[in-house]
Amino acid sequence: MLEIYVYGGGDIFQQFFNAIATAVGTSTFSTLLRISTLLTGTTALFSAIFKRDFLICIKWFASFYIVFHIIFLPKITVDIVDRTDSRHHIVSNVPLGLGIWPILQLLWETL
């Protein structure tokens, strides 16, 4: 379980994470992902054919694999801790990329 600390508005954060978890878990998102994969894969293939550079397809496949299988596919549980009233809001099935984004942003700001 990943903890995210907020100062006020814990209910809003819970609704936001629930909305994203619900949207990603539906069949509509799966269909949208398949269509976008088909279009971008075809574009990368035609680009590789016309430029005669197969490395374009390899780069596209590597970036697709990283984005989908590392950021969207794994799910985590997020515990949103509101520091103003000490309440915990737990949200399940949040994509990994969205769940760790506040932590990565905090690390980036401290550097």
Write a structural description.
The protein is elongated and about 60 Å long. By secondary structure, it is α+β, with helices and mostly antiparallel strands. 66% of the residues lie in helices and 20% in strands. The protein has helices at residues 10-24, 27-51, 55-72, 96-110, and strands spanning 2-6, 75-82, 87-95. It has one domain (2-110). Strands 1-2-3 form a three-stranded mixed beta sheet.
Strand order of the largest sheet: 1-2-3
How many discrete structural domains? 1
- If you compute it from the alpha carbons, what radius of gyration comes out, rounded to the nearest whole angstrom? 18 Å
The 3D shape can be described as: elongated
The secondary-structure element order is EHHHEEH
- First-to-last CA distance: 25 Å
Tally of helical runs: 4
Structural class: alpha+beta
- Assembly type of the chains comes to single chain
Largest sheet: 3 strands, mixed
Pick out the low-confidence regions: none
Strand content: 15-25%
Mean pLDDT: 85
Helix content: 55-70%
